[in-house]
Structure formats: structure tokens, C-alpha cells
Amino acid sequence: MAVAAPGPWVLGNRLRADGVIVASVPVRSCWLVQYGPQPLWRQTIRAARFAMPDPGYRRLRRWLEELDPDVVHVNCLPHLRGAAAADDLGLPVVWHVREILPPGRRRRWFADRLRTHADRVVAVSEAVAEWLREEGLGDLVEVVHNGVDPPSDAVDRQAARRLFGLPSGGEVIGLFSQLVEHKGAVDFVRAAHRAAVDNPELGFLIAGHGPVGFRGRLHREIAAGSAAARIRLVPPQDKIWELLAAVDAVTLTTLWPDPLPRVVMEAMSYGLPVVSYNGGGVPEMVTDGETGLLVEPGDVDGLARGMSKLAADKSLRQRCGDAGRRRARRLFSVERHVDRMEAVLESTAE
Questions:
Q1: Is this structure's pTM higher than 0.85?
Q2: What is d(CA 227, CA 278) in angstroms, rounded to the nearest whole number?
Q3: Interior CA angle at 144 toward 140 and 149, to 5°?
Q4: What total number of domains does the chain contain?
Q5: What is the distance between the alpha carbons of residues 35 and 142, in angstroms, rounded to a whole number?
Q6: What's phi and psi for 205, nearest 5 deg?
Q7: How many CB atoms lie within 10 A of CB 55?
Q8: Distance CA 72, CA 92 (A)
Q9: How many Cβ atoms are within 10 Å of 115's Cβ, its own excluded?
Q10: CA-to-CA separations, 223 to 39, 63, 182, 188, 199, in angstroms, rounded
Q11: Segments of the chain scoring below 50 in pLDDT
């Protein structure tokens, strides 16, 4: 097995230690895959940069030619150069798509690239597969959900709460996400203020990274409501499990369709209920009323009611958490993911 990355990679050393060949090939990526609208100047600059001659492409093509793999796995839409280089050499390509694109010219352009270079397309959710099928790629598409491994050892709840400056008692609702506009952290804070009115002991924990300007806005939103003293905003953590150990339920407030949010999968595998905006791949994960609660994107009042409902009912949290753990074990285990991906790769290589 060999992996080429366009630059320094967090998994590089770990893979090398396991005997995997890891090469750094600085080929350009095409980062025009954000769901929401992008300023024309940004699209123009990115498109122009991608269209310029790319020495990295030639290096990547030579590397693939020397390696002569049985199949090439291209991870995510932006890595167009890798797919093109493999296809140019006549190598079978499995293209893993983890993005949802809205209808329009940009989506059609990416669909044409997939149609030209991919022998198989793996979608991480039915929500991703839907737009691919709408673009006429249904014959190539296979849905393979991601998987997570729950922690092998239990994380101490009280130690986790002390770590994040939370009280030892009472319920806590968590949001663990990028802190950017479309991830909906402002909606979470506003819902927290409303839920706190009827739940004087309810606390909230936010963890994530984002631009300084947005974090400043989030601090102002926190300070402006009744739950200000009960909302903790902490930096992103290397391990999610300490965050999950500290809370009683997890929220997801993404305003755009989220392909298959990992934090939901992790919360379910940990046995926590989820209250989430209903979009993207979330309903493939969360069964409303069974493993958590779903509300429409942007419905802050509904989100607050969901928070209050879970906070007030320990038996409901327990039932949803247990059902979520069973569902995660059945559908979102690492073993299941690996088996499905091995089957796709092997059949494409034949």
C-alpha cells in the first residue's frame, strides 16, 4: 500500500510506522466544493490557480507510473489531479466523495470530472449519492458509510468535567464543531439561552476552532443571554471522548447539508442522544424519537425544545443513547467500513 499526500499530513508518521509508503507530492487541489455560495473573486482566483501548469501533476504521474498500483483511491472531490493522472495511465480509479454540492454549473463540472476519470464512485451517505445520481452517475455509485471505533476504556466523567471547568452535577449539552457561520454555533447559543430559562441547572459546552472574528461574535452572543455563565467555550481537543464524557447529549446545528457528520457517529457510539438539525446525511444516522431528536435547520425554538426535553428526561436520554449505540455498532463500525471498502477496491481492480 502507498499513499501520496499534497503536503504534510497528520497521519503520515503513523502510516509509515505501519509499513505504508507515504510520499509528499505537492499537487494543486481544487477547493471549490463548499456547499454555500462563494464570492466571485474567490472562485475566480481558485479556478485560475488550478488551471495554471502544475509541476506537481507530472511528479504525481511519474510516481504512479513507477508504483503501478492495482487500483487508485482518490479521497474527496478536490483531488482532481490524482484522478486525472491515474486515468491517464489507464489505472482503475475509485473516487471517494464526501461532499454535497448544490445544483448548478459547479456541480455539473465536478460531475463531468467524475464521469471522465472514475471507474467507481464511493459516496459517504445516501445524501451524497443523491446528487451524484441526479447528475447521471448512478451506475458508478456505491454508498459506504464511514465508521468509528469507540474508546476501549471508559473516560471518567468527573475528571472530564473538571478538565473543562464544568460543575460536577447537572446536565450538560455539547456542541463540537468548526466555529464558522454555516456550522450554526450562533443558533446553538441562542437555543441555549432559551432552554436555560426553564432549566436553571442546565449547562453547555462548545469546543472547536474557527476564525478570530467569528469567535468574537460567538463570545458576544454568549454574553447577551441568560445562560452566559453556564456556557463554556473551549479550544478544540485532540480526542473527542473526553468531550463526550463531560456531556449528557450532543447537538449538531449545521445549516447546510452535512454529508455524514462524524461527531454524530461518535456521540452515538458513545451512547449519547443527539438533537440535530435535519439535513444531509443526519437522518441516515439519527432516527427521530429513537436515537435522538431532529428539527428543521434554522429552527432555534425547536432546537431549544429538544435540548430541554433531553435535559429533563433521564430515561429518554438513556433509551436514545442505548439505541444509538446499537445502531452505530451495526451500521457505523470501522470493521463494516473496511469490509465494504475492501470489496469495492478489489472488485474495481479486477
A1: yes
A2: 25
A3: 160
A4: 2
A5: 21
A6: -130, 125
A7: 10
A8: 6
A9: 14
A10: 31, 54, 21, 14, 18
A11: none
